[in-house]
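Write out the 3D structure for:
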Amino acid sequence: MSHPLLWVLAGVIAYLLGSISTGLLVAKFAHGPDLRSVGSKSTGASNVQRTMGWKYGLITFWGDALKAILACWIGLLLTGSHYGSLLCGLLVIIGHNWPVFFGFKGGKGVASSCGVMLFCYPLPAAICFVLTIGLIALLRYISVGSMFMLTLYAVLVSVFYSGGDWIVICWAALLAILCIARHHANISRLIHGTENKLGRKVQPQSEETK
């Protein structure tokens, strides 16, 4: 087993990578709005897409996903353990959601979660991606698709890939819990029928929430 300090180092690097907000950087270089004051006030890809268009939304999505993959790879490299990837995957999402560089105001961690899912357990991730795309195409609610994706992933990993390892099961459950918790406002809007559907673009000055 690698030295405990390497685990700490991997975790710190993962959190700091997560704290690099792709959405805020994209908005800055594209002369876009302050994402924390428009739309859903999230720095994630969905809010970028709604306020700046699909091109910038996709750039943000892939940037957030790739930083998560990098964090998981660093975790594996430094610790020599799959558990290192799991730890760094969790911390990169936490960093994205609560970034130290941007006043702890970040996104909802969906794109970063996709990167973590793909690196740690690629087959259930692929299944979840396909089914989630279909669900979003049907319902046109990204929030519903996101929560469905992480919940299904937790179930698949726990039942078929954990081997009864409680660390893996708890890790998968935490990913789902983080996603659902970050979408609490969306859940309220879904209940009241005011949730925005995919493709609706908000104006930069709008105070509308996602």
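The chain has one domain: 4-192.
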